[in-house]
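Notebook, p. 212. Picked up where the previous page left off. The plan for this session was modest: take the two constructs that came back from the sequencing core last week, fold each one, and keep the raw output in the notebook itself so nobody has to go hunting through shared drives later. Recording the first one now, exactly as returned: residue sequence, then the structure token string.
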Amino acid sequence: MEPNTADTPFIRRYMAFQAIEDYRQFKHNRPMTGFQPAAKQVLAAFVLLAAAMVAPAHAKDLALIANKGGGIDSISMADLVKVCKGQTARWPDGKPVTLIIREPGSPDMKMMVDKIYGVTVEELRDLITTANHGRANRPAIIVVNTDEDVIRRVQAAPGTVGLVDVYSITGAVTVVKIGGKLPLEAGYALHGN
């Protein structure tokens, strides 16, 4: 019989908690009922595996996406930083540059804040305000709530680029090479680890 999918996260958390509790007893040389000495090594491995299953992933690979009609297929990391800081107003073909990102304070965007901006979240919010000053009709940086919102906005306007989780990419946008590399290639600049 297949388990109820609604109970699966609860069951995983319970199993991980139980395994950690058993490991603590093992570590402090307390008797563990039902475990033979050889099974203690297996228990230690299981504890690590269970903790990995339960722990949320904090480092995600990000992808730079562009509007399909935008003609942007590659960018250097230095030029990407300029775009992200609102220092580039137009692409070489004359189209205005707009960057769409998710909320800088969200856990999914921590890597972006660290690798691209190198500032605190509050400093980034100030930078966004400054970059958008005087660009009311086409802001330099737009903040949205979800990767789906980023994709929708990028898809709608030529010259627009956005940063999304690699696994959110759809066929509606173009993935831009950064420093000659695509996401998941060795040496990719926005790799999360």
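Okay, moving on. Second construct, recorded in the same format:
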Amino acid sequence: MKRNSRRSRVDRVTPFEEERSRHPAPGLRPPGLQPSMPVKKRSTIIVLGVDPGTLVTGYGVVARKDSHLRLLACGTIRNPSGQSMALRLRTIYAELTSVIEKYHPDEFAIESAFYGKNAQSALKLGHARGVSILAAVEHEIPTSEYSPREVKKAVVGTGNASKEQVQFMIKTLLGLSNGKMLLDTSDALAIAICHLHRLITPTARHKDWKSFVEAHPERVKS
């Protein structure tokens, strides 16, 4: 098989131009993964949200202090379609590691696997999710997963919201101008904000199977 000799081109990790900021590194964590510190004991919480994909991975770093949200950085990690899967995964891991080491997030949130895609697409998504989670785990950052429906409901108020509606709400919540933003980026920011919301107001347990199905229809096989 003829190998693609073209070098990969990947967008460098850059903060969103209108809200660029730096945040000092928190104290070192004890060895091993630790459970999340109660929100009331942390003055500022920084969350890295990731919308995984082997061709385009969106990321967003959001800080919350009291009830105020602030964007620290966001963007996309891109891979050429002709590049090998191994090299794509290495790029995703390396770029997310760079973001983690620069902004030192306290929490990591990522979109969970969901039904509805073909087997090949699900497999590729799983690869991207795996290396993304690995980058967080190796830096001892607590990780959480949310379904697309959970994220939309937390940000927009309905699990059936469109990606455009999610992006509109993200810009509103973060006080951003109506400039151009890729949907992969706004989805990642939505995941981060969803996690911040859940840290403040944890999800109530479902009292029965019916309530679970109503809340998470994407998890029930037709």
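Notes on construct two before I forget. The first strand starts at residue 44 and ends at 51.
Flagging for discussion at group meeting.
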